[in-house]
Amino acid sequence: MTQKKIESLRPTYALIDLKSFAHNIEQARSLSGTDIIAIIKADGYGHGALKMAEYAWRNCGVKRFGVATVLEGMILREHLGREPMIFLLGYVDQFLHEELFSNNLIPAVFDDEIASAYHSYLVKHDRTADITLKIDTGMHRLGYQPDMDYYSFTVKYPRFRVCHVMSHLSSSDTDLEYSNHQKELFSAFIKKNHIKSNTSLLNSSGIANIKNEFSLARPGIMLYGYLYGNNEVALKKVMRIYSKVVHIKRIKSGETVSYNRRFTADREMTVGVVPIGYADGYSRRFSNRAEMRVNGVNCPVLGTVCMDMTMIDLTNVPLNGMYPEVEILGDNITADKWAELADTISYEVLCGISDRIPRIYKD
Ligand SMILES: *Cc1c(COP(=O)(O)O)cnc(C)c1O
């Protein structure tokens, strides 16, 4: 199918604004005062990892990327060539060590079992590799404890080149005191062990709230225009979702809308059908709660969100016989708003927007 046909399957699409992405990259750099590892895991937080990484690499001078899985890393390597540094932030299954090292993906080493497994592979293939050493300063997910013996580590695993030492904040968006405690532990570790390689601690909220004393930072969500909590950071939203009303009907007072009749009209109403539903990542929790924006008017969702369609109230929208455009996500109805309605965070909302919604890129 041609791009045109794919886009015309349904009038629902996500517009990805690459200039805004570039703006956010610059914000992340200037706030952190260092270069960044651009985090593009989970398909670039739902924006399309390849396109985002390619743009950052070619137009913004980003040389380091962070991914969650070997597959994400392999695809990026194939697409961007040999030069970019690709950091794997998570766990790698032993069946994938070949893919990991032959693609020069930089794994995080976070305990002796993993270290031995990687190191045996390198010995067997008579080679060395860059790695990230991951220190657990309080997230209690992955990482060596800060009292680990760094010198012994380097002696025991001579085929590792520790090019990066990192730790991760657990509460950078909600608890400054705990974050600073983690920062002190990490700084002390670096100092005690005379670490000369690159170091990083701060994710997006960390960058916004804490002074960066390390040589790199690892922004994710802020590159896409969101940050949890109050802040003064001037970010631009990268994704907007638009659609069109595809069907309009009038209903009478007392009539009901959608599955299980969870909405009853209390007057004569105009109902519009919009082709987006929970299979697209438009949560069923938005039933009777969310709004979409049509011709400058916020239109409540009526009744239950279906798998592929959602009904909205067009009663107050001047229609003049046209099927109007609908803003579903954007500056007026943000991912934070979606998150509030679905009792989650913007991260989950964004990476939950399914592949069925075509991404259209605008430079
Ligand atoms: C996801 C992730 C980040 C980016 O976090 P944001 O809050 O999106 O900025 C940074 N570091 C690690 C280890 C991560 O897993």
Task: Pick out its properties.
binds pyridoxal-5'-phosphate; 23% strand; 2 domains; four-stranded mixed beta sheet; four-stranded parallel beta sheet; 363 residues; alanine racemase activity; alpha/beta; 12 helices; Lyase, Ornithine Decarboxylase, Chain A, domain 1; TIM Barrel; elongated
Describe this entry's structure for a reader.
By secondary structure, this protein is of the alpha/beta class. It folds into two domains: 18-224, Alpha-Beta Barrel (TIM Barrel), CATH 3.20.20; 239-361, Lyase, Ornithine Decarboxylase, Chain A, domain 1 (Beta Barrel). 30% of the residues lie in helices and 23% in strands. The chain has helices at 3-7, 18-32, 41-45, 49-59, 70-80, 97-102, 112-124, 150-156, 176-192, 204-209, 335-341, 346-351, and strands at 13-17, 35-36, 38-39, 64-67, 85-88, 105-106, 108-109, 129-135, 160-167, 198-200, 216-217, 239-244, 247-251, 256-257, 263-264, 269-274, 291-294, 297-300, 310-313, 325-329, 359-362. A four-stranded mixed sheet has the order 20-12-1-21. Strands 3-4-5-6 form a four-stranded parallel sheet. A four-stranded parallel sheet has the order 7-8-9-10, with helices on one face. The longest helix has 17 residues, at 176-192. The radius of gyration is 24 Å and the shape is elongated. The model has no long low-confidence stretch (mean pLDDT 96). The structure holds pyridoxal-5'-phosphate (PLP). The modification N6-(pyridoxal phosphate)lysine is found at residue 41. It is an enzyme of class 5 (isomerase). Substrate binds at residues 141, 307.
CATH class membership of the largest domain: Alpha Beta
Q: Could you give the distance between the termini? A: 24 Å
Biggest β-sheet description? 4 strands, mixed
CATH architecture of the largest domain: Alpha-Beta Barrel
How large is the radius of gyration?
24 Å
**Helix-and-strand structural type:** alpha/beta
What is the name of the CATH topology of the largest domain?
A: TIM Barrel
The total number of structural domains is: 2
Q: So, the CATH homologous superfamily of the largest domain?
A: Alanine racemase
| Portion in strands | 15-25%
Please list the strands of the largest sheet in the order they lie side by side.
20-12-1-21
Catalytic activity: L-alanine = D-alanine
Keywords: Isomerase, Pyridoxal phosphate
Modified residues (N6-(pyridoxal phosphate)lysine): 41
InterPro entries: Ala_racemase, Ala_racemase/Decarboxylase_C, Ala_racemase_C, Ala_racemase_N, Ala_racemase_pyridoxalP-BS, PLP-binding_barrel
